[in-house]
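Progress note, sequence design subtask.
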């Protein structure tokens, strides 16, 4: 890793993939390497992945389809708290076991300083993130327990409704202006995250909910894995005013590698070149500034371009940035420095 630009990535779903393997020793799949998927420890080292937000996502359906339809054609029903609690706690336990079994090769990091220490010692820095807070009741008591276990980043909703607010369903073409804003419980959740030092992730939140967080939060606004809506009018992508709001607070947006959030036709074609990622980066840099753009791959949660393939393809994207004319300082900001700056302001 010493000879390549390190990457701190804003979103991966490796824990979900390991959880769905059904193996009690699933952490060994990550540590020893496995066929398929996008991220494991050997490939992370090979690709220069120094750390990132490891998402815990309570899955809606085993194959992410309803009656044979793709997610972008479906409005997902709400998920019961009991079911969400079972999967959320199971993945949280898996992350704890993964840290113990790694013998120092992976660390759950609770602040920016510990991330920097992990990166300096060639330890994979894992920030505990929850994507969809269905497991949490309106009393918010579970947040205190999860915080003690290392939770430092939370998306109140996934692309469905819950007691906190409304996620944007996967629609193309569509604006994110779908549904109502945060509930009172959702507003209380944002305030509690601010008090504890938990980053609030806006990537799956609808427009009215985004505006509510903007009005309530005293922390930088962050969309960990979303792209430019002007290029790909997918409901999950960021409109110009949303990027302006993020910039005003010193926040950031992480480039999502999912082809359906990159392509102007919203298609799911893996034969998508790196040029479209660079087009999004150019647009995001113009809207957010050099300090507001990062990476949020969505590895293990999306179809990524074949030109990247998996985490070992990160150096190809870095090299494409160089060939595109990005200087080394800007590349480092996008690759990891911007995430570290924002995390220092949000989680400490």
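Output:
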């Amino acid at each position: 890793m010493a000879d390549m630009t390190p990457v701190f990535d804003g979103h991966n779903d490796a824990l979900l993939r390991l959880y769905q393997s059904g193996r009690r020793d699933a952490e060994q799949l990550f540590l020893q390497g496995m066929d398929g998927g996008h991220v494991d420890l050997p490939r992370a080292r090979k690709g220069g992945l120094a750390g990132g937000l490891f998402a815990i996502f309570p899955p809606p359906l085993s194959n992410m389809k309803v009656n044979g339809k793709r997610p972008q054609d479906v409005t997902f029903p709400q998920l019961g708290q009991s079911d969400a609690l079972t999967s959320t706690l199971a993945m949280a336990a898996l992350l704890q076991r993964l840290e113990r079994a790694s013998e120092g090769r992976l660390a759950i990091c609770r602040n920016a300083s510990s991330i920097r220490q992990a990166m300096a010692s060639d330890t994979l820095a894992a920030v505990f993130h929850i994507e969809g807070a269905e497991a949490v009741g309106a009393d918010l008591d579970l947040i205190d327990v999860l915080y003690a276990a290392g939770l430092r980043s939370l998306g109140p909703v996934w692309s469905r409704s819950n007691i906190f607010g409304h996620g944007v369903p996967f629609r193309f073409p569509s604006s994110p202006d779908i549904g109502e804003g945060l509930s009172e419980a959702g507003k209380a959740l944002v305030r509690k995250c601010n008090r504890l030092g938990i980053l609030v992730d806006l990537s799956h939140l609808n427009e009215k909910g985004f505006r509510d967080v903007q009005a309530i939060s005293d922390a930088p606004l962050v969309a960990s894995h979303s792209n430019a809506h002007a290029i790909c009018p997918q409901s999950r992508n960021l409109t110009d005013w949303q990027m302006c709001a993020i910039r005003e607070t010193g926040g950031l947006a992480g480039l999502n590698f999912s082809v359906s959030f990159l392509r102007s036709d919203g298609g799911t074609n893996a034969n998508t070149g790196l040029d479209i990622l660079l087009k999004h980066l150019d647009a995001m840099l113009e809207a957010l500034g050099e300090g507001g753009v990062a990476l949020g791959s969505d590895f293990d949660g999306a179809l990524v371009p074949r030109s990247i393939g998996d985490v070992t393809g990160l150096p190809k994207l870095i090299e494409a940035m160089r060939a595109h004319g990005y200087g080394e300082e800007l590349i480092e900001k996008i690759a990891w420095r911007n995430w570290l700056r924002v995390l220092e302001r949000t989680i400490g």
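Residues 258 and 302 are 5 Å apart (CA to CA). Work on this subtask will continue into the next period as scheduled.
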